[in-house]
Design a protein that fits this description.
globular; FAD/NAD(P)-binding domain; alpha+beta; 589 residues
């Protein structure tokens, strides 16, 4: 039986609920103040509720204030977050999509290394964690570990404790467990408002705002996107496309018809819808404006594709299906290439654990959707989604065509039809991923640009924040009609044989007058051909860690990122296990 009036009982009950809510919603630093104010207004639940609402709002604003804000939950973005947290900084990693890890979890499981001996720090730790993952019997669901035979590039050597070939789901598991272990905050499905979402005071970024209206305030910012979206929205200098050779005293930049001898079409393919009749128009995806002057720059980009994860195990295989919107004319050049004498299966099929593969482009007509990505870097989100969907339609149609179309040679149909996308990878897309292989988009233009001369050792960056070691590599950029009236591919460059080389700290931060608290470890300052060597996932992780260390130094010393002490940064990076110069085993390729 109640001994108080009904009004008092209601107030007491309401206050009890408020106090329980306070303990759930408000952290220790707000606890005493909140409970004190709540008790002061115990006779007025309405006022107490308003106080709680006000403090909860203030708390939300507080939780979006960080030392370091990382935009892009790619491989290097996650590593940057882990490093920042290890150095005692509050950090948030903001991922525009619903999946972290970028290409490392998006199908690129056959790691492009160049030289594994110059991969150190947290990047190497990632591959160690994958090694440990595959040491457990539970990791081998579809295959005996002893039956797995990786290619030499990714083969585990005696005494090695790293794995360089892995399933997308395994990479995702490693990142997710690492995030849980380190307690870094990762927020998904928040896209930067690219038009008005960067607030600056002079050359300093104060905060960024996403399309949902959420604002993140920080002392330092790291753009870990493939596209360089934060960099561009912050108003720093960047470029898109290929420079002329004359810009940086190079020989392999710009238009390359003479170099483009690999991944080439069979000689003599007619480019017209009706063979021999120019008036019938060009086949799809041939650039009527090409190729341009040899060595001259343009706005064209090396081709994108999806790195497919396939299997030939029936229990885990989804057969290739004819996609809605299939257009047979898109593959006429493929048919003519076969009819002109091409006899291979047009893919690089690299073995992954559990009877899975990483599929990449090979030869003249394959998974690269050549010439169809030029607008991507500057496109709106909606336009990028359309470009991605068109790439997916092309690749799904290509695989169905190779497996089923009567104009595909029978032996190739027989082999390709044994394969399909996997049931247990990219489940949300029925075996198909959303992560487009963005080989190149925007590139920062800082006051230091990595070029072909750095790759070949003709110039040396004295402020190393990591080593690059891959071939100077560009996939094809366009298809054009040559002087003989036949279709050719243009843009492929593959030059190897040089040692690993350092990547400059100055190449991952903007000019001081443009931004003093931003680092760009992905869309870094490099020419088209040098970027083609640097742009490997292990290197992006290396640069992500170095960027976080540099950002921490800038915060601790109260300096612009351009003014921090490189000797101090160098000492820290070496202590963290980063490799900053070539060693005895550092010969590339």
């Amino acid at each position: 039986m109640l001994t108080t009036s009904s009004g008092s009982a209601i107030r007491n009950a309401t206050n009890a609920l408020i106090c329980r809510a306070v303990y759930r919603l408000v952290p220790n630093e707000f606890m005493k103040t909140t409970i004190y104010l709540t008790r002061c207004f115990a006779s007025s639940p309405t006022i107490a509720c308003l106080i709680l609402l006000f403090l909860a709002t203030a708390l939300k604003a507080e939780t979006d204030v960080y030392d370091i804000v990382v935009y892009g939950g790619t491989s290097g973005g996650i590593i940057a977050g882990i490093q920042a947290k290890a150095m005692g900084k509050s950090v948030v990693v903001i991922e525009p999509s619903n999946r972290i890890g970028g290409l490392t979890t998006g199908g690129l499981g056959h790691t492009d290394i160049g030289n594994k001996y110059v991969i150190g720090g947290l990047s190497r730790e990632f591959y160690r964690r994958l090694f440990k993952h595959y040491q457990t019997p539970a990791a081998w669901k579809w295959q005996n570990a002893a039956d797995y035979q990786p290619k030499p590039q990714t083969k585990i050597e005696v005494g090695d404790d790293t794995t360089w070939a892995f399933e997308p789901s395994a990479a995702l598991k490693v990142y997710e467990e690492w995030i849980t272990e380190t307690k870094i905050k990762v927020i998904k499905n928040e896209r930067l408002n690219r038009s008005t979402g960067v607030k600056k005071d002079g050359a300093r970024i104060l905060a960024i705002t996403t399309e949902s209206g959420r604002t993140f305030t920080g002392k330092m910012f790291i753009d870990a996107t493939y596209e360089g979206d934060l960099m561009a929205a912050a108003g720093v200098s960047y470029c898109v496309g290929r420079e002329a050779n004359s810009v940086y005293n190079e020989t392999m930049n710009g238009v390359q018809t003479k170099q483009a001898t690999k991944h080439q079409l069979v000689v003599g393919i007619d480019p017209y819808v009706t063979p021999g009749k120019p008036e019938s128009g060009l086949l799809p995806f041939i650039d009527a404006k090409g190729p341009g002057e040899e060595g001259e720059g343009d706005q064209r980009l090396q081709a994108y594709c999806f790195r497919m994860c396939l299997t030939d195990l029936p229990a885990n295989r989804i057969p290739f299906q004819k996609p809605i919107g299939y257009n047979e004319e898109w593959y006429e050049m493929l048919f003519r290439n076969f009819e002109a004498g091409y006899t291979n299966i047009p893919w690089i099929n690299s073995a992954m654990p559990n009877r899975k593969t990483d599929i990449n482009n090979r030869d003249g007509y394959s998974t690269d959707f050549i010439g169809q990505n030029y607008d991507y870097p500057e496109a709106s989100y909606a336009e990028r989604e359309k470009i991605g969907a068109r790439h997916l339609l092309y690749q799904q149609g290509l695989m169905w065509t190779l497996a089923n179309h009567p104009r595909t040679p029978e032996n190739i149909r027989k082999e390709v039809s044994r394969w399909g996308v996997t049931k247990d990878e990219f489940v949300e897309g029925n075996g198909w991923q959303n992560q487009l292989y963005i080989r190149e988009a925007r590139r920062l233009v800082s006051d230091y640009v990595m070029t072909q001369r750095h790759c070949q050792g003709l110039e040396y960056a004295s402020d190393s924040v990591g080593m690059a070691a891959y071939t100077m590599d560009s996939h094809h950029v366009q298809r054009y009609v040559d002087a003989t009236g036949h279709v050719r591919n243009e843009g492929d460059v593959q030059v190897r044989g040089f040692p690993a080389y350092p990547v400059s700290f100055r190449s991952i931060r903007p000019k001081k007058e443009q931004c003093t608290n931003l680092l760009v470890p992905f869309a870094l300052s490099a020419s088209h051909i040098a970027f083609g060597s640097i742009r490997m996932e292990p290197v992006f992780m290396i640069l992500g860690q170095s960027a976080a260390t540099a950002a921490t130094n800038a915060i601790d010393d109260g300096l612009a990122i351009q003014d921090i002490s490189y000797p101090k940064l160098q000492s820290q990076l070496l202590a963290e296990g980063q490799i900053l110069k070539s060693g005895a085993r550092a010969k590339n390729n």
